[in-house]
Amino acid sequence: MSTKINVTVNGVQYSHFVEPRLLLVSYLRDVLHLTGTHVGCDTSNCGACTIHVNGKATKCCTLLAVQADGCNITTIEGLSNNGELHPLQEGFNECHGLQCGFCTPGMIMTAADLLQHNPQPSEADIRHALDGNFCRCTGYHNIVKSVQYAAQKMKEKEVVH
Amino acid sequence: MSTNGLIGRAIKRVEDKRFLTGHGNYTDDIVLPKQTYASFVRSQYAHARLLNVDTSAAKEMPGVVAIYTGTDLVDVNGVPCGWQVNFKNGDTMKEPKHPLLVADKVRHVGDAIAIVIAETIEQATDAAEAVMVEYEELPCVVDAAKAVQSGAPLVHDDVPNNKSFDWVLGNPIEEVNEAMRKAAHVSTLEFVNQRLVPNAIEPRSYNSSYDPATEKYTLYTSSQNPHLIRLLMCAFVLGIPEHKVRVVSPDVGGGFGSKIFHYTEEALLTWCSKKIGRPVKWTSERSESFLLDAHGRDHITKADMGFDANGKIVALRVKTYANLGAYLSTFSSCVPTYLHGTLMQGLYTTPKINVDVTGVFTNTTPVDAYRGAGRPEATYLLERLIDLAALEMNIDPADLRFRNFIPPFDGVNQPGYQTQVALQYDSGNYEGVLKKGLEMVNYAEVRREQQEAAHNGKLVGIGFSTYIEACGIAPSAIVGSLGCRAGLFESAHVRVQPTGKVSVYTGSHSHGQGHETTFAQVVADKLGINLNDVEIIHGDSEAVAFGMGTYGSRSLSVGGSAIIKSIEKIIEKGKKIAAHKLEASADDIEFSSGKFTVKGTDKSIGFGEVALTAYVPHVYPKDLEPGLDFSSFYDPANFTYPFGCHIAVVEVDKETGKVSLKRFIAVDDVGNVINPMIVEGQIHGGLVQGIGQALFEGAEYDENGQLTNASYMDYCMPRADDFPMFEMGSQVTPCPHNPLGVKGAGEAGTIGAAPAIVNAVIDALWSGGHKVKDIRMPLTSERVWHAMVDA
Amino acid sequence: MQLAGKYLLHAAPPKVWATLMNMDTLAKVVPGISRLEKTGDHTFKSILDIKLGPVSGSFTGNLQLDDLQEPSAFTLKAQQNSRIGNANAAIKINLSPVGTDDTEIVFDGDVKLSGMLASLGQRVMGGVSNTLTKQFFSNLEKELEKTPAS
Fold first, then answer.
1. Are B280 and B207 in contact (CB under 8 A)?
2. ipTM surpasses 0.85
3. In this complex, do B710 and C120 lie within 8 Å of one another by their Cβ atoms?
4. Could you tell me the CATH number of the domain that includes residue A106?
5. Is the CB of B109 less than 8 angstroms away from the CB of C116?
6. What is the pLDDT of residues B62-87, one digit of tens each?
7. Comparing C-alpha atoms, which of B786, C145, C132 is closest to residue B774?
8. In degrees, to the nearest 5, what angle opens at C-alpha B360 toward C-alphas B355 and B362?
9. What would you report as the CA-atom Rg of chain A, rounded to the nearest whole angstrom?
10. Which residues does the UniProt record annotate as the domain [2Fe-2S]-binding (chain A) (predicted)?
């Protein structure tokens, strides 16, 4: 038994028949081969699977693919614009905000959501926003700095435009 | 040797881009043609006899390709332990078989009973649920101290008292007892260094295939050391020829020790791939990771530290029961012994030390190296005891340390320091890091604030930890004499391409440590070329000649030194080529900034031209082979001994016992630094794992051997808003015995941090008149509150 | 996991006892029973389908009524297996008269959980077992109301 879904992922429209129990993260990884979104747990705690669904940061390891029918999805693969890194991607490189890289896509997608709503977050705001994303490598110190870097960069861009 | 100033600079990581754009390539991302998927039937009980395993219904389920149980594998060896520890009486440790699938009795929750292979992971999981297992539940034991008592249930029927080994190191116990009797003051602690779950965010994943045409296996594995896995799996478990197996560790999402070990699933999937003639993939679910990835720590310890009237340590006596879990994991036997007992000198001149360790089997997940491995436990013991002694003797804890530090020595002009517990420290300036830490924290001011806080009814505490670790693991001859069943050298192959670009094949795998940047910095610096003209290749047994892997903070000190050896050979050969072209003697050629120059002249040719000449040898020395390509093996002369000082400032809420970490100062001396940005990042991550142990983490077993917090809903992982920004300081005391002068930074943070936190909390409580000796980690609000109220 | 509590039923102990010892009513009052098969004087084979929040599974196993002291006490022993874990319980149940028409049931025992029930489910199991207990007693109450006073 399959159900048809239509989704837009990183600007591309897809139409697939999927099993009702297929998780959205499995749809992205196994059907669309977008393996940048990772699975770190099975309880929606670690945040490695965070993507944007209709513009909002969402943990897709406990969402079914059929629930995403009609949705607009952005994954880490769709964050950079024409080969130009997103300020967050740049910030994570600049401030050494990643080590093994496994939590990084989810971390960046969560931070991107934060900066959309709170373009100049305090350190406490950042730490609070990233509370649902685990990183075992960096001790969060440089992740906080990376987000601060991106916020500053985005502000500078605003001024230029 | 030349330098273009790349060494020592905070170069941005070259590997980042693929991770930032979602193009990392982890094992679970790999799908092979004709892929199948595995799911396991695992024990629900900590200890039970298997009466019947019925796979008949499961075999009829849709998509099932094959199901194997323990009875299919009775002739296959188990996974081995890589380090032999002997009993005090000389007997070899007890090393029962750790089977790939259990046939007789299960010994911990999660022990594998059957593997189900199907066309999709969902079908495999469905069918695994249809396998019917009949158990006869047996009494179990989870606590190491209880497991050695007579009458305790036996994890392995042929291991009396569940003892794998008992072991002793240091001065004779009589001498230590005598010194302790004469001591003016003895501080004693009985404590538990609790069990931790490593929790790399990438769950373990394997994908194994077999090609009947070439009779070759390929195993993709989330391992820290693919060559070691190949060696152990081929030679000890499956008995297949090593040259017929390729093991690849692609991108690996963190290890922290837990991905060193050769796990049963690696060998089992490899065995299955030939049986079914198709690739088999398995990726651990998080709930499985909690039950299967080797845990860390879990020591029950009683320790006494004796002091003379001047506060000088005169003796240290340690008795530890180390919980090994149900089976010996790859390095589990050496962690509580040679990585723990050997660190009991700490930074102090203690003249008499005796360490006694009993390794114990229990019905729990196997325990092995987890970031720091033995050294955090040793540091915790020493640093808690000396801080407690300071409180008990009413001496300032910093002052008490200064009274006992080994004086500075550089290992060149002054000899290394011979400890009472086998090791010889390479170089150190221990008072230097504490002095720097005291300056950074502004000690006098913090003490004043503490008094003021106490006056206002608030509990503020400051805690110290001055640690040392032995890393850069390790000289093969030394570890061989101590029971290690492998050499611990490293290999490096540096291939200069005809165009002067350089490919470096290293046995040190990178899973977050940034080798692709740091190693390239070393190579580019030494050869005077651009960073982006160097590529670091690692993690593939077919590409890299050999490798012992990444653990024990060894990559740069051992793997980096191997690279230096190859570079030296390249420069030496390059000089001969240049001499021929420049019509000079090779002895008169010097190499600097990427150029070979005839000394005292302006005659020179560039590195690129020498490289091209080596591969297009039209004008070439007659006695020289073409090519510019060298491999080397480096076996270190000694361990390296990084050290440092960590200081925590905490506030404890009087009403609730909640601990707030206000400041954390880390001054680490890791020898010379190639990339300070990466080193700081390593230490940050280490600190959070150390502080995580002190405040949040801990595996909780119930008396039935069930791990009751086996999910992220229950196991408290450190999160972003648990921490302040860290205050980082550094000192450089170069390692005298490796060419880069580096010591290693991967574990420093974890080793030093936990006791600083606990000391700070205890200090806070004493400032409010609660004379608490110890609180069991993690220091939850509940435990701190109880300690306050009960004191 | 400890399971303890008490419940007041509007019926005298002998009637409560008789209801509990009757296999047909037992099948109606134990929550989720889809099959109950008598295997001995006081032993049964059972299949229970339990769906409560995150705990959902088909349990197969044995129920046993032991240490019978009519009409005041017995022990309920249950060994239930499922794909999400096994449960092993021994619950001591005391029936004491309150006035002439009522019975107070006091129960106390230990439930041993294994597998996912223990590692993932433990923290919700308290709530689940409370709900099941309530269901059991409200079912029992209904059964007692149906049968006329003896």
1. yes
2. yes
3. yes
4. 1.10.150.120
5. no
6. 999 999 999 999 999 999 999 999 99
7. B786
8. 150
9. 16
10. 75-148
